Fold:
Amino acid sequence: MAEITRYIGLSLGADICWPAAFEGVMKRLDLRIPHGADTMKFDVERISIEPFNLRQKVKYDVVIDRLTHWYHASREWIKKGILMDDLYVFNNPWSVQSNEKHTSYAAMMALGMPIPETWMIPPKAYDLQNQPDVKLTLQKYGKLFDLKNVGDQVGWPFFLKPYDGGGWRAVTRVADPKAAWKAYENSGRMVMHAQQSVEGFDRFVRCIGFGPQTHCVSYDPSAPLHDRYTMKTNFMPATDVEHLRKVTLTINAFFGWDFNSCEALHRDGTWYPIDYANPCPDSQVTSLHYHWPWLVKSYLRWAIFTAATKKPMRKTLDWEPFYKVAAMDLPYAEKLDRYAAIADERLQTAQFTEFSARHLSHLDAVADDYFASAECKAAVREKTAALFPAHEVERFSELFFSRVQQYRADNPPQR
Structure:
C-alpha cells in the first residue's frame, strides 16, 4: 500500500485571506482518501513567478488561478501546463482571455435568455498618434450617430458601461440625452455598451457558482463595498434559487468557467441576467464577510474533487450541444432545463455530490473550527489592514470577523 500525493497549486495576485483559510482548513483536514489499494494525500503550494522551460513538466494536478485575467506570464505558464501536462485549471484561460461581457451577452441572447436590450457604441476617442490607420478608417467608414437615437431604441434610462466591464468601472446610469452625452464624452477610448435599465426590479441577486455549487446573495450595489453583499437569508422562493442555479451553471459550463458570479434582476416574474462575465469573482472577506466561509469551503471541495479524480480539462469549449437546444421549438424554461443538464454532465455534478458525501462529510465541521480560530481572525485582520486606513483596521476587522461568526451560528455543522 503506497501513498499518492495530489498537488494543488495556488496562482495568486493580491489575495490574502482566502488562501490562508484554504491552507488552514486543508491542514486541519489532513486528508487520507482511499485510492484502490493506495492512500491519496494532498499538498497545497503557492506558485512562484519565474522563467520556465516549456518542456519542464508541471508538478500540479490542479491550479486555482487568480492571475490569468491580467498577468500574462502566469497565463502562458498555465496554458502550457494544460496543453502538455494534463493540468486542470480554474478557469479555462483561453476563455477568460477571449470572452468578455460583450461575448457573454451575445451568446446568452442566442440561447434565449432574457438579456436587456443592449447596443455597442464605438469609442469616443482614439490614439491617432500611435495608430495612424485609425484616422483613415474612420474617415472612410465611421458613421456619425446621435446617441439620443440610440437611447430611444435601447430605451430610457439605460446604463453606459465598458463592453469588457470589471469592478463597476465607468458604469453610468443615464436618464436623458444630456446625461448620456456627458457620460459618453467621459468614456475616452473605451468601447461602450448601452444597456437598457431594468426599472422597477424587486430583487437584485448575485449567484456565485463554483463547480456545481451555487450560492445566491441579495446584493445592494448602492451600499458601500463592505455592505453590498447583504446578510439576508431565505429572501426568495426555492423555485427562484433553482432557476438561478440553472442560469449560472449554464453560463459557466458554456464558457468553461469553474467559478464565476452572475448578477440578475427580478421583475414581474422574470429574472434578467445583467452581468455574468466575472470569471475571477471577488473572494475577499472584506466584501463577502458573512458569505466568505461558504466560498472558502467551495474552493476546497471543488479543488479536492478535481485533484482526487484527475478530472480532465476540457480544452475546447464545444458550444454545439447548447446551440442544438437553442434551435429547438421549446419554451425557454424547457431549454434552460436542457442547458443545465449539459452543465451538470460537464461539471460532473452527480460524481461530485457522491465524492463529497463519501470523503468530505467532515469538511463543514473542520472548517467551522477554523473560522472560529485566532488563525482565521489574523487572516481577516491582515486583509483588512491591506485595504483600510490604519485608524479603521481594528473596527472593520472586528466587523468582518463578527459576520463570519454569524455565518457559523446560522449554519452549524453536523458533528
Notes: The chain has a mean pLDDT of 96. The CA atoms of residues 216 and 365 lie 22 Å apart.
